[in-house]
Description:
Elements: E1 4-6, E2 12-15, E3 28-33, E4 63-66, E5 96-97, E6 103-108, E7 113-119, E8 126-134, E9 146-149, E10 160-168, E11 177-191, E12 197-211, E13 218-220, E14 226-237, E15 278-281, E16 286-288, E17 301-307, H1 314-328, E18 333-339, H2 350-360, E19 369-371, H3 376-381, E20 391-394, E21 396-401, E22 406-410, H4 419-428
Parallel strand pairs: 5-14, 17-18, 18-19
Antiparallel strand pairs: 1-2, 2-4, 3-20, 6-7, 7-8, 8-10, 9-11, 10-11, 11-12, 12-13, 12-14, 15-16, 15-19, 17-21, 21-22
Amino acid sequence: xxxxxxxxxxxxxxxxxxxxxxxxxxxxxxxxxxxxxxxxxxxxxxxxxxxxxxxxxxxxxxxxxxxxxxxxxxxxxxxxxxxxxxxxxxxxxxxxxxxxxxxxxxxxxxxxxxxxxxxxxxxxxxxxxxxxxxxxxxxxxxxxxxxxxxxxxxxxxxxxxxxxxxxxxxxxxxxxxxxxxxxxxxxxxxxxxxxxxxxxxxxxxxxxxxxxxxxxxxxxxxxxxxxxxxxxxxxxxxxxxxxxxxxxxxxxxxxxxxxxxxxxxxxxxxxxxxxxxxxxxxxxxxxxxxxxxxxxxxxxxxxxxxxxxxxxxxxxxxxxxxxxxxxxxxxxxxxxxxxxxxxxxxxxxxxxxxxxxxxxxxxxxxxxxxxxxxxxxxxxxxxxxxxxxxxxxxxxxxxxxxxxxxxxxxxxxxxxxxxxxxxxxxxxx
Length: 429
């Protein structure tokens, strides 16, 4: 599934919110981009953005976050204006030629999406060029130097996506025209890590298109313009985040994990002993994290699930956690269902939290439903591992060892199984 697409506006980032079909756990990329609220729109993209999200499978919300601030802090001096001919990389007659960049930026989100962005001016109106690389399967966009064909591609399913925009006047509004390259090639001569360099050339023909906001299918405009970029050079340093985005916060972890309970905690990342904090449950009772077993000699497992009333994938995940709790509660499993937003994307209140719990009552004990407006307390204590653009998914889950509140598992990180398997391992200790 496509993690995200950026189209139709001046780097307005569209993060798909549907659920990962593979894991059946996602309401979407970005359950929030720190602080944003979802819309009621359902993304129907499949296969390519198949998502009907990172995000993955079902219902969700298209969240838009502004991805563009000033781009003028990078090297623009090495850009070839591409004025050598009026044929791009094909046989089409070109209405426009080349691209005179005055600013360039590049960076990734740490989750398989990489963006190069150039602008022709720091004042309005300006034109803009994007190289969007969707590096994860099934798109398998460029992650290393090489020559990559864009022949016959469509924006809905490209891994190496070349777009141009003209008549851009505001970072939050669509540009006058959008162009997509479906003929030619992208040559990447150098592609380092953050702090390194991105360098290469574009030989491509861009056609004026419209892009469907739901499917991301690009459709040529009848009688539209053609924009050719022949031997267009790009060169810029690679930042620590997507252009226009601040780097994601980093987790704090101790050199060693304490085998006993640490009241104030010694970090918030994987392997840290999580410090105590208190939330109010749907019954109006205060519940502290450490009261759930911290300091006890018996190893138990705590399954923490963060969700929202608007999250379409939430009920299925809540049911999974509840069933496992019913099965293994007597063997040492505990759970926290942390609700951060209501059905409308507003911060949860005691009233809307109680309403959420009532939907599951009596199958789901109300004392296990915790209220945390936009998960501010929970995520300040248990790091949620957002992407480089600040995005994360809901439902979000973590697993802790209750005897010392060691942070064992987070579903935003790959390579350490899933919540249920980590629960099984802990309960077997």
